[in-house]
Design a protein that fits this description.
The chain has about 500 residues and is an alpha/beta fold. About 30% of the residues lie in helices and about 25% in strands. It has 3 domains: about 200 residues, FAD/NAD(P)-binding domain (3-Layer(bba) Sandwich), CATH 3.50.50.60; about 110 residues, FAD/NAD(P)-binding domain; about 130 residues, FAD/NAD-linked reductase, C-terminal dimerisation domain (Enolase-like, domain 1, 2-Layer Sandwich), CATH 3.30.390.30. It is built from 12 helices and 24 strands. Helix 1 packs parallel to helix 7 and helix 3 runs antiparallel to helix 4. The protein is globular, with a radius of gyration of 25 Å.
Amino acid sequence: MEHYDLVVIGGGPSGYAATMRALDFNKKVLLIEKNKLGGAGIYNGVLTSKTLWEYSQKISSIRETLPNFEVNFDDILKTLKEVVFERKTQMTVHLQLLQNQNNLLTYEKGAASFITKHIISIKKEDGSIKTVSAENILIASGSRPRYLPNISIDERIIMTSDGIKNLNELPKSLVVLGAGVIGCEFATIFSNLGKTKVYLIDKADRILPFEDADVADVVSENLQKHGAVIHQGAALKRMEIKDGEVEYELSYKDGKTEIFKVEKALVSVGRIPNVENLNLEAAGIKLNEKGSIWNDDTQTNTSNIYVAGDVTTDIALVNVGEREARHAVVRMFGPTIKPLSYENISTIMFLNPEVASVGMSEQDCVEKGLAHKVVKLDYSTNARAIAMRKTKGFFKIIVTNDHGMRILGMRAVGEHASSAIQAVAYLIHTNQGIRELADMMHPHPSIIEGVQECLRMLLGKSIYKSSVFKDKLKCYVCENGVCTNVKTLV
């Protein structure tokens, strides 16, 4: 029986990252993948959806000048195939060359399951079984879209994100069930392309309920501007396929019901971990109340077995999964390190406009009873946004309500928003104040100048004065549930 320092179960972003990090420690590693190297991250997840978003943004810009411009869906499919091929080839060739260079790395295609906490069974496509042993094991088996028991999902008429690849033309109409990030992203994509009437079912009073209302309002306004209909405060009574189309019925708090018929439906109600076929019981691995693998700083209750990525379903983001995987490997083979922190993760929501965030939101601060100060600057004051003719959006920074003004969080909503958050993320990570970043010489014109101007507002030395730009610049303190305007500008 072959023995390894580390066996990695799952060849998606997390498993791949763990494998490469283990090689840094000169460890003998076996990477096992059941389906396709790269996992959902390449084939029906973040890479394909963000490619679609980028394409749709370009189409949306063209349609602002040429309203009757018709998108060619064959071109979209061609682009998606090229993107997947490029990334898949890059990862596959990289893996093959590393295997040829040394005897540390082995790749096996097959379905892994536990026999004991140190022994793994690999079932190959031809039905044969291979057994290996390992000192340490990392589970990175990923997740899949959640199905609802009362909806018959065929991945062609009623789809999850996995079924988008089955489209051979843009539907004339589409309903999206779920107004979280993924649901709103796909609503944005299809409404941007201009050929699909989009409906979004939102059981809450507003979309993106985990975000601040001002963020959700801008996104909602732009969706509706592109013809989308948002069913707010609506509960889905039924959704079914009739005569090759989708019929769905909604009920509202006032007792009213409505029936709609559309060509396709996209169900986006979260993801569930891929754990069923791993035979976790044989290794004594416990699940938590959500059905995910219990872990403490990536380590399961079985000390030599670790977990990373979507299989935990706590925060299903590629950057988080990769970081967890690398952290787990260092815990196995490296020096003692401090635990991972999930408090200040930088994220991007690919909406219209783009939304970037780091740290706490306003509503987070209110829920925790934290006194805080908020500064908000409209995108229309930013030279780069004006040059791009993309002035819809705002910058918002939340700081402690004291002299140190330590940054608690930031939201940027608008074109190139993601380019604005990383400097602030670093300040949060290092627990620093705002003065150094406010006094730096930033490039001009750039989106990050909006961040600088927010910090100058907090310090009372903004270029723009609130007495003139009352609707563009805001600064207020919230304490004990009461918010009061602050005159930081002269």
